[in-house]
Amino acid sequence: MIEVKNVSKTYKMGKEVVTALNNVTVKINDSEFVAIVGPSGSGKSTLMHLVGGLDTPTAGSIYVDGKDISKLKDKDMSKYRNQTIGFVFQSFNLENTQTALENVMMPLIFAGVSVKERKAKAKKALEMVGLGDKIKHKPNEMSGGQRQRVSIARALVNEPQIIFADEPTGNLDSKNGELIMKLLNDLNAKGYTIIMVTHNMEEAKKAKRVITIKDGEIQGGSVNEI
């Protein structure tokens, strides 16, 4: 379970202090599919980055399975990001010079997995997202929907507990967007915890719970409303 307790995040911009999050408290249970929605600058991406270990709060605590990740040392935080969570980005973040298989293998390099096992795990992850026949294709040889599925396979390859999806359909047409949403729901049905950041309310409604955030504060959905 993820528990965000009284978390605030501020940034200094010159002499001005900008509050990205203000005293946020929210719980997300194992195997939930939660959508975090809000306008640009509302703090939704900041919240995801904090829970994902990409940033640390100015105040408050973030517990994942009872451990306060905001107090982890750099080495332990890197391990958390590599083994506990997987990231899916709007812009895919794939290496264009590498094949789908090589892109998916990347997180396994940092995990110290052997080359043989890397290939086997990456191939299995690509098969999970329906791209078993595209392992030798490079991103520029694929559609946007296929590239996002490669990104999802890369997020899955280390068998994480939590998948973070940041505007996962933002660069896709409606048909491919629907396919990605179906894939995320299928993964959730298999037991993965999915946390999706989006400004698209229609897609947000396909999650099991919607958390609305505005001006750095939770507006609704902070308790289980499934």
UniProtKB/TrEMBL annotation:
Q: Which InterPro entries match?
A: AAA+_ATPase, ABC_transporter-like_ATP-bd, ABC_transporter-like_CS, ABC_transpr_LolD-like, MacB-like_ATP-bd, P-loop_NTPase
Any single GO CC term annotated in Swiss-Prot or TrEMBL for this entry? membrane protein complex
Where does the ABC transporter domain start and stop, copy by copy? 2-226
Q: Which UniProt keywords apply?
A: ATP-binding, Nucleotide-binding, Transport
* GO MF, any single term: ATP hydrolysis activity
Q: Which CDD domains match?
A: ABC_MJ0796_LolCDE_FtsE
Name of protein: Putative ABC transport system ATP-binding protein
Q: What is the lineage of its organism?
A: Bacteria, Bacillati, Bacillota, Clostridia, Eubacteriales
